[in-house]
Amino acid sequence: MPEVERKSKITASRKLLLKSLMLAKAKECWEQEHEAREAEKVRYLAERIPALQTRGLSLSALQDLCRELHAKVEVVDEERYDIEAMSGMEGRKKMFDAAKSPTSQ
Known about the structure:
By secondary structure, the protein is mainly alpha-helical.
């Protein structure tokens, strides 16, 4: 049986046009998703974080506010560090268990 050469049902220029249209649509969708994420982020932050009022505060009140904010940042940093350390230990434990299992040999 001789091999029959198959012709493409779509021309190269049409294929290129469709590809560029798909890329344009994907870029448009990505930009819309990005804008929606940014809007959600702004809404969430506005909801969770009250505006900082510093007008009319004395020097000592401003210093107390800075100490309070610094303490809160320190607590969050400690929690983040603990979470990262725990997740790192879990990952190492899983790798160790996988290397130790008989099915990996």
